[in-house]
Amino acid sequence: RGTLPRVRYDQLMKxxxxxxxxxxxxxxxxxxxxxxxRNEAYDFSEIVLYVGGGVVAILLLSFVxxxxxxxxxxxxxxxxxxxxxxxxxxxxxxxxxxxxxxxLAPVPRRRPRSERELIVSGGTxxxxxxxxx
Length: 133
What we know:
0% strand
């Protein structure tokens, strides 16, 4: 029980859609590129150079985009405080816990019996009003 991780269905689907499918598409494109270059009679060292250059270029673009995204997120986090917007735990249809920094609205408590008003559809003087235990 301790050695086998339990993966929820949504975690498995997220892994499949966000990791495994993009990796398989990239692998397919890489294999197709290598096969096309081999069919064009390119040398193996030239193929490695082209494919390696493409991978390095993509990694550099990803690194630069990640740096700019982090700067933008830090600027937004420093300037924005979500105290004005109350947190609704059932907004999406399912109960969710609050994120760090979010607070639940105070829960209204029930008033004591002596302070409660009697609300009856037939009026205030009915037979059911007298039967209070």
